[in-house]
Amino acid sequence: MNRNDRAIVALVMLAHGMVHTYELSIPIFITIWLDQYEVIDLGLAQFPVNQATLGAVVTGGYALFGLGALPGGIVVDRVGSRRLISGCLLGMAGSFLLLWLSPSLAVVAVGLLLWGAAASVYHPAGLALISKGVEERGTGFAYHGIAGNVGIGLGPLLTAVLLLVFDWTTVAGFLALPALVAAAYATRAEFDEGAAVAADGGDAGAGAADGSADTERTSGGSKATSGVSSLSDLFAESRRLFTGRFALVFTVAMCSGLYYRGVLTFLPGLLADLPGFAPVSISALLPASLDGVVVGGSGSQTLNPENYVYSGILMVGVLGQYVGGRLTDRIPVEHGIAGAFGGLALLALAFFPVANAGFGPLLFVGGVLGFALFVVQPLYQAAIAEYTPAGTRGLSYGFTYVGVFGVGALGGVMAGTILSYASPPVLFVTLAVIAAVASLIGVVLSRKKGTTAA
């Protein structure tokens, strides 16, 4: 990669890693908030703190994370990626600084909403920057994806380690610092946002992946090459997308988001209730000579195994992303969607029976779950590219992120409500039904594609 490529890739790797670091550190904090707070005081009304109400609080931030992607994708064409990414980083830093200062759970809710709004613009801005500014786009996207998965796995781990020494508000303050540093880099780094477009003669990537496009994706006056330039274009292209097979792929994306958020939001707490997850005193693991030095002689510091298993499950997702990406080059994506989501449905049904069999079986089924959660992402992302015209690909991915992170955020409140008023097995049966719907859509898409080819 040339100098311009390296500068852009460094920025998007920093930003992407931090977006997912913050996203998946929140479930670590949830277990603390459930113990620390008793009511949510909104002034005119008070609500008891339980998994249902806390799920609703967290869902607000996660919903904005997804819903803001569509306007973010439109705005990035107006103001450029650098400004949006800088604003994203500053907003995320500010939200975690607010958590650091928060006196109540109501302020925590405001901080989460601020985080969701700020983080929502990153994906359209970062992906647009790579596609327009990096000449070696494939390498740029690869590094970008790796950084996101590192943040997904190491973010919760870093949070859990810091909580060994500091209270949760101080940890939130520490987590804000990297985003401030990255924002300073974003404003000072020298790079050309449109270098790849200029190198391609002003038509970078146009139709790059459309050799197999069917007539549905390019007919009917679609803006296949010119994109969306007005509000009327936005409505026309949106209507055209959702009257085609994109609507089915969008439903798959929503199912993925509901499953992802539904299983991860309360997973540390679910793991804590399983056999073998009792807190472990740090002083019991250390020689007596090091006890006072490492844990301050308090004797009360403990390791919470569920936080580290949770982080490990997410780290396995790096391998899942890689395998899912390879599968998109080797098998029809429709078959991959049917098989991968079918596997997620079976995993949801098997998770609790296997997990209750002991710590070893739990590690196995947890690792398989982490792998399968991320295998599906490259599959539906590739399907979006197959079922949409090149000129509205940005709009298509904007809608996709609304489905995955916006509608998918409802998985958090769904999980909290079920856990408060039913039981964990009921939650996992619900998740199995969601995955089964996505698997069935994969079968339908495969048959439709076969009929079209015939």
Q: What this model shows, in words?
A:
With 454 residues, this protein is mainly alpha-helical. The protein folds into two domains: 1-202, MFS general substrate transporter like domains (Growth Hormone, Chain: A, Up-down Bundle), CATH 1.20.1250; 220-454, Growth Hormone, Chain: A, CATH 1.20.1250. It contains 21 helices and four strands. A two-stranded antiparallel ribbon has the order 1-2. A two-stranded antiparallel ribbon has the order 3-4. Residues 202-226 and 293-299 have low confidence and may be disordered.
What would the keywords be for this entry?
2 domains, two-stranded antiparallel sheet, single chain, 454 residues, Growth Hormone, Chain: A, 21 helices, mainly alpha
What is the structure about, briefly put?
This protein has 454 residues and is mainly α.
CATH domain class name of the largest domain: Mainly Alpha
What's the tally of helices? 21
Question: What gap, in angstroms, lies between the N and C termini?
Answer: 43 Å
Overall SS class: mainly alpha
Number of separate structural domains: 2
Instruction: Give the low-confidence spans.
Output: 202-226, 293-299
H-E string:
HEEHHHHHHHHHHHEHHEHHHHHHH
Shape: globular
Any idea of the CATH topology of the largest domain? Growth Hormone, Chain: A
Instruction: Specify the CATH architecture of the largest domain.
Output: Up-down Bundle
